[in-house]
Design brief:
The structure holds 2 protein chains of 2 kinds.
Chain A (H helix, E strand, L loop, with lengths): L1 E2 L8 H8 L1 H11 L6 E6 L6 H15 L3 E6 L4 H14 L8 H17 L6 E5 L16 E5 L9 H11 L4 E4 L12 E3 L16 H10 L8 E5 L8 H12 L5 E7 L5 H14 L5 E6 L4 H10 L2 E4 L8 H8 L4 E4 L4 H4 L7 E3 L2 H13 L1 H18 L2 H16 L3
Parallel strand pairs in A: 2-3, 2-4, 4-5, 5-6, 6-7, 8-9, 8-11, 9-10, 11-12, 12-13
Antiparallel strand pairs in A: 1-3
Chain B lengths: L10 E14 L2 H10 L2 H14 L10 H8 L4 H8 L9 H18 L1 H4 L7 E12 L7 H9 L3 H15 L5 H8 L4 H8 L8 H18 L1
Classes of the chains: A alpha/beta, B mainly alpha.
């Protein structure tokens, strides 16, 4: 177990310029009764993945508000991470045939980590299944523990969930990204959204020249409509479905489609999906399949900002934060009504939802035919993200939880 | 400028959304859920979501109407639900009764649609509120104006809209204090008539500040 050091400080003043001084004042008022009280976040990785990305931005903000928040990462061997990867897939509904040893490995690793940490912060936030069994180390009569689950638990493997349920039920509260992911638990369950940071490289304003250079680099024509899906090459993101929707749209509009995601070189399944995508593209010069480096926030930002419409045609989705990224940039979004997407895309208000390839194509055609409606959806989407899915709101939600737990809600 | 003996206390308000145990996949299930869910759930899906979607000034009224529109695909029912104005209610019981009546009447007269599966389920949630004094009480209209201009969206909404449930009156915290505290009944009435359904919270606040400034000029 090791504490993660956060390098970047972000002055609150920078957020006030974007959100209004009154919203920052509100954070200060909520933070005041929490000063001097300890908060600890525990997850299983310091780099990569959405949780680490969010904590990297959350902690500096907490520090700006003079909150005593620390972040520890649990440690484990390959055997532990192999087991938790299987658990992760099984909780998403994938088939799983457990070996009793898997559960022993999981428990032994949690026990080792328990021995290394005092676990005595007043507020303990445990992220995802990997460290869930740390609750065994809760001091008697003790502190407040809450479990934050970032994954889709709507169709979990029963064996794995029944194993985890024993631990989760002993927390004081659990938080999920969508009501659909909640479980039948004897503790309060809250809706907690992931968040984007408007000042991060992925979301901050960009120079128009940089956007133009990015398009030129990938040989994308800036003068014709650009449909974009940003996601890793994963069947659950349905990149092949995006190409099929594009082909329907292409009959009516001379457009291009961009499918951009992290490199598939270290992901065997991703490499297979990438081949499927290239096969489906069949050499069409208006289909741009882009393998981005593992960390390419500015390129993602530029591609989103250059897009006419952003698509997220997932078949399953945890939350789909790329939707909020696009909405923050005032882009009209056409997305599947799965996971946390409908929370972000309020149909016909902040974007359009679809349930099929044909539906996706229809909604894209509608927006290309009605740019004024597309612009309005983008404007509303930006305001929706500002109210609900920014890192400042996330911290506000945590502070509200701490205050609610303190008073025994 | 008038001075009020009991100053206006501004609050900072934050909410958590607690996920309930009930959900609905059909209109019949929605009616049942509406009847049995907690008061906090009715509040959440009407008062609270109107506040968190204040920037949508065309067509968004409450979660029930949005679900009837986007997921159950029943435009006529959605229209009836959207037309319900939360400002007409001073008790959750009355609001719940009307919601159940509208959905119930629709189910009774459209039996085929009542049991039709919606695209997505409706999940009943409720709001858990945390309230803290902002620390800048107002004793005069000038101080009151200053306080209003520094309120967050959530706090403004708390005082302006959801206060009706607390006061159990068809008014809001601001109008209540302006009338009872400062004796400015006309201003109180004008503030109470600002339309929250066609304004964003920002434009409603701007309108309120304009009315206050006009009153200050009179003084």
């Amino acid at each position: 177990m090791s504490e993660v050091a956060i390098a970047t400080r972000i002055p609150l003043h920078d957020y006030a310029a974007l959100l209004g001084e009154e919203e920052i004042d509100e954070l200060r008022v909520l933070a005041k009764p929490l000063r001097g009280r300890s908060i600890e976040m525990i997850n299983s990785t310091a780099v990569g993945g959405g949780v680490a990305e969010i904590l990297n931005r959350l902690l500096p903000l907490a520090e700006e508000l003079e909150l005593d928040m620390r972040w520890d990462v649990m440690t484990g061997g390959d055997d532990f991470y192999n087991v938790t990867k299987s658990f992760h897939n099984a909780l998403h509904g994938a088939p799983y045939h457990p070996d009793p040893k898997d559960f022993e490995i999981f428990l032994a690793c949690n026990e080792r980590n328990r021995a290394r940490l005092p676990l005595d912060a007043e507020f303990m936030i445990i992220h995802d299944p990997q460290p869930a069994a740390l609750i065994d180390g809760r001091p008697n009569g003790g502190n407040h523990w809450a479990w934050r689950c970032h994954i889709d638990l709507s169709h979990p493997n029963g064996v794995v969930w029944n194993f985890l349920d024993k631990f989760v039920a002993r927390y004081e509260a659990a938080m999920f990204s969508s009501p659909e992911f909640s479980r039948n638990l004897p503790i309060p369950q809250y809706l907690f959204y992931p968040a984007i940071d408007p000042l991060s490289e992925k979301n901050r304003d960009l120079d128009a020249n940089f956007i133009a250079q990015t398009l030129a680099h990938y040989r994308i024509d800036p003068h014709r409509p650009i449909l974009t899906q940003i996601s890793r090459f994963d069947r659950l993101k349905d990149p092949v479905g995006v190409i099929r929707a594009y082909r329907i749209v292409k009959r009516y509009f001379d457009c291009q489609v961009v499918l951009a995601g992290g490199s598939a070189s270290d992901d065997p399944e991703g490499a297979v999906v990438l081949q499927e995508v290239l096969r489906e593209a069949d050499g069409d010069p208006d289909i741009h399949v882009i393998e981005l480096p593992a960390w390419a926030p500015l390129e993602v930002n530029a591609l989103q900002r250059a897009s006419t419409i952003v698509i997220q045609k997932s078949l399953r989705e945890g939350f789909g934060l790329t939707v909020s990224e696009a909405l923050w940039k005032k882009k009209p979004v056409v997305a599947s009504a799965v996971g946390g997407i409908p929370v972000q895309v309020i149909h016909k208000h902040t974007g359009l939802l679809a349930h099929s390839v044909e539906g996706t194509a229809y909604q894209i055609r509608f927006l290309l035919s009605h740019p004024e409606i597309a612009a309005k959806l983008g404007e509303h989407g930006h305001k929706h993200v500002k109210e609900n899915f920014l890192i400042t709101q996330k911290l506000k939600r945590y502070m509200t939880l701490f205050l609610a737990m303190s008073r025994g809600s | 400028m008038n001075t009020e003996q009991k100053p206006f206390e501004f609050f900072t308000v934050a909410h958590l959304t607690r996920i309930g145990n009930e959900s609905a996949g059909t209109l019949t299930e929605l009616r049942s859920g509406m009847r049995h869910c907690s008061d906090a759930s009715i509040f959440h899906h009407t008062f609270q979501t109107l506040g968190s979607h204040h920037f949508l000034t065309e067509g968004f009224s409450n979660d029930f109407a949005q679900w009837a529109h986007a997921d159950a695909n029943r435009e006529d029912l959605a229209e009836q639900l959207a037309a319900m104005d939360v400002r007409d209610y001073v008790s959750i019981a009355a609001l719940r009764e009307d919601l159940c009546r509208v959905v119930g009447d629709y189910c009774d007269s459209h039996k085929a649609f009542a049991s039709q599966e919606a695209l997505e389920r409706f999940y009943f949630c409720e709001s858990v509120e945390v309230r803290l004094p902002f620390g800048l009480p107002a004793a005069t209209l000038d101080e009151f104006r200053e306080g209003i201009s520094h309120l967050s969206h959530a706090s403004f909404y708390f005082h302006f809209i959801s206060s009706r449930m607390r006061l159990q009156l068809q008014t809001n915290d601001f109008s209540h204090w302006l009338a009872d505290g400062l004796g400015l009944e006309t201003l109180a009435d004008e503030v109470n008539h600002i339309d929250i359904y066609t304004n964003t919270l920002d434009s409603a606040r701007d309108e309120m500040l304009r009315l206050i400034d006009r009153e200050r000029r009179k003084a």
